[in-house]
Request: fold
Amino acid sequence: MIGADPQTGTGGAPGGGAAAFAGLWIGAALVGLFVAAALLSFVWTPYDVTRIDVAAKLQGPSAAHWFGTDHFGRDLFSMIMVGARTSLAVALVAVGIGMGVGVPLGLTAAALRGGWLDELIMRANDLVFAFPALLIAVMITAVFGPSAFNAILAIGIFNIPVFARLTRGAALGYWQLDFIRAAQVCGKGRARISVEHVLPNLFNILIVQGTIQFSLGILAEAGLSYVGLGAQPPLPSWGRMLAESQTMFSFAPHLALFPGLSILLAVLGLNLLGDGLRDRLDPRRGLAP
Amino acid sequence: MLRFALFRALSLGLSLVAASLVVFFALEIVPGDPAAAMLGVNAQEDTLAALRAELGLDRGPVARYFDWAGGLLRGDFGISYTYRTPVAQMIADRLWVSLPLALYALALTLLIAFPAGLAAAARRGKGTDLTIMGVTQLGIAVPNFWFAMLLVLAFSITLRWFSAGGFPGWEAGVGPAMKALTLPAIALALPQASILTRVLRSALIETLGQDYIRTARARGLTRRQVLWRHALRNALIPVLTIIGLQFSFLLAGAIIIENVFYLPGLGRLIFQSIGQRDIIVVESVVMLLVFAVILVTFLVDLAYAAVDPRLRRPR
Amino acid sequence: MSGAETGLHVEGLSVSIGRAPILRDVGFSVAPGEVRGIIGESGSGKTMSAYAVMGLLPRAARMEGRVTLGGQDIGGMSERDMCALRGQQIGMIFQEPMTALNPVMTIGAQVAETVRIHGAGSRRAAMARAAEVLERVGLPPDEVPLSRYPHELSGGQRQRVVIASAIALRPALLIADEPTTALDVTTQAQILALLARLVREDGMGLMLISHDLAVVAGMADAVTIMKEGRVVDSGPTEALFRARRHPYTQALFAASTHVPDPVPQPPEPPPLLQLRNVERSYVQRSGLFGRPTQIRAVRGVSFDLAAGESLGLVGESGCGKSTLGRAILGLDPVDGGEIRLAGAPVHAGPTMPPEQRRRMQVVFQDPFGSFNPRHRVRRILSEPYHALDDPPGPQARATAISDALSDVGLDAADADRFIHEFSGGQRQRIAIARALIIRPELILLDEPVSALDVSVRAQVLDLLADLRRRYGLSYLFISHDLNVVRAVTDRVMVMRKGEIVEAGPTGQVLDAPQHDYTRALIAASPRLDAPLREGSRG
Reply:
């Protein structure tokens, strides 16, 4: 029997393998650039981002200032490099919180399927899911005041049910398979089977989802900082740069253009990378161990 | 079907109670003394005591919760500390901006995503599909508030087709009010429409690979006919989930976008209240938005059952 | 189109996808009122031949050759003309009735769609026609209303709906691709009888595709045998079955009727596995919110399995044989009665003592789901050591693994490969090696050869008999296939609705069944010698 069905061919990325392959590498390159800029900013930026130079304020892009300067005369390119660091840190830690809490919860729920703990975990997930990250951030800020840490926490909490549901759903599929039964016949318990047999098979989808949540985290951080619930001055952040540019962008559009493009490219890169990895790691296309 | 609806309604009620407990706990219990949180560190002791008495904070947390929750049920959200007006009235005024904006954006999202998703799935691998997939890839990556700023730059500042912000109010007529909401709605809708297009496309493609599509083709249906008659309805099941989620993103997104366009909606209210430490207002708006999200989840559950007979009670 | 030719003619049909040839110079014909069996193992191209006739080849496929139906050349027809033809002049039914129907459309609408799509009447007329056709295939609307959805029907009923939608417009040709492979034997017999009746009544040609010689034997007037994309043998059924000219035909027959050499049994063996009044029930909810109902899946089952014995357990799907198997393995608790292995009770869960666990291992049906895809064979084979108190050291382990691999006919070097590198038959050998590695006394074999092609099946059955002889193993062999059970078991039990209705020596039970259900099962099982017994078909 030929596996491909006769009416539809195979799904996946348009244009088949070549486009997906190109997407993967473009994505990897963009993400690499983004990470490199963030890391480099620790040791070197073209200008000091805290140095105010009113004489050089609101300049357009030039050889001296590649992306121009803001209303305090700070170098936009340097600020974007440091802003990459903020975005990276917030999104990375938020994904870490989501995975670190959500994956064990999902594994537990799947291992105890139908039990009261499964029910409790899933209902708690539904409850958290009813609170968009923005509302979580609003509540935290209302109590503790604004900070970048709030943004991390809010996005992180929002990520927990995402990973818990994904993990549970995928793990349930594996619990149906006979190799789990064979392990049980050998006397292995549910916890051991979850770690030894289920979790390693979830790596692929977790990597893919992690990439997607990472990109959503960058968008969310930018949004929160834009409305003042995230990173606070003097910490440069792409979202806050956009907020500050708002009163000036009719006469200095570069102030809004470059931070926005940075977000766009970082998110685009992560999405392309995620889609590319999904196509690469899709178990239906032959499981590459 | 009725039994299913009742069951879901019960679960809706429980979710609301749980959510209200979370909000109450986060905003009234965690801060310790909400009065101190509202007034800040420099507050006088007698002012604090007066505020505590005014807010009913001198009683136990259980009694306070029932007071608050009972008030919510009656539509009594309390009195804003900053403005000394009923919170319910403040919210109602603002809701008439935020809710129409979110619904407008949802309508645009559906109007864009369904034709685009169907076209991409029908012409998979061809130019149409590649173009749609490329555009949506960009659409997902664009931050909506930045896209909103670009729209203002293009259509308000350069072309002068729309005003750059503000809201004339519904008293000025439906036309001008909708016009004021158009750019914000587009900015909100584009990223969500991109997501939905991709979800619909992949759900359709997944469905087109099912055995029953082959059966339908063997009956003599053309590719187009199987897409419309068989694939679309089955693909709606995952698509509905996303639409439900999107509504909550649109509500949250509306709150951010209002800042770009200086719209007097819930977003402006919530950020002002945070700045003024008006926790009662924050609490009420959060609760209202959470209620909206839970309600939409409930409606999506009902829609599932309408689409998928397997979820209805077997006879 | 009244040409000289009637029926379906396929000549010189070649299909390739990319550079890979799928079909090479295939030819056969189906006359009106004739049943043409197409037989082959997986990869033989039998299904692709059907898709070529239907014009439903994958888009990437290239096709050459001539396909005519009633004198009309349909091989080179446009997609639009093929759409008009499909459902109208050719109907097709498929292997998997559980997924062949749209889950969100009523069965009436799906049958009526065939009528509507070809413009043969209004919506109301189409529904009336659907009701007639469903009645004709044995689903009278007063028992199974048109407003039912597929999930409310059994597998056999769904296959009848698919058949109804294929024959609603009385096509000249019906293609049935493994129409009964997913069904129980008694349901299979009913569906085959239905197809035979429809062919007779409508004078329709039937192209019956199957991997199972016996299914085709009782139905087909003529048979075409395919292998690796080519026709290797063809002719009237009886002549072909008698002559067995081609070596591959001979090999297929030999594999289908293969019986491994008998395994001598020790005199008066002690009982190894004892079941006494075992009960197992579970609560089923119909949907999320339906009333929970108690299902008694296993009802008061008692039996003894002697050391060194091979005991068969047969029954149709849902009879409780798998539930019973899970209870014996200690995966599920029993609700009543007792299971003892070598005198000690079997408990569910991790509380069972290791010396009890090591006595028993399992081999499952699915050669794909039985192994963790991320583990190498070495790790897969080491897993049962978990059941031991004193697992062997690395050196002894390596020796044991290479011994186990060579025991099942694989190479020691295979230990370092991943499971996806093996064929279905090889995977079942690995599953057997895993079961063997800690030298258990009892192996529970749950449909171990059902997913395998006949030639591979024969080899695996030989291997099982050989290992039993060598290591004095006991088997509990769960299967739905009476032929396989006859070949490899000493005694057999027949299970129905949670109860053992008949038990005894295999030959005796299968040749002189006492219980009505056993008789029905045996009568429904397709027989390879059908064309030879009946003489010529009428």
Notes: The CA atoms of residues 182 and 188 of chain A lie 9 Å apart.
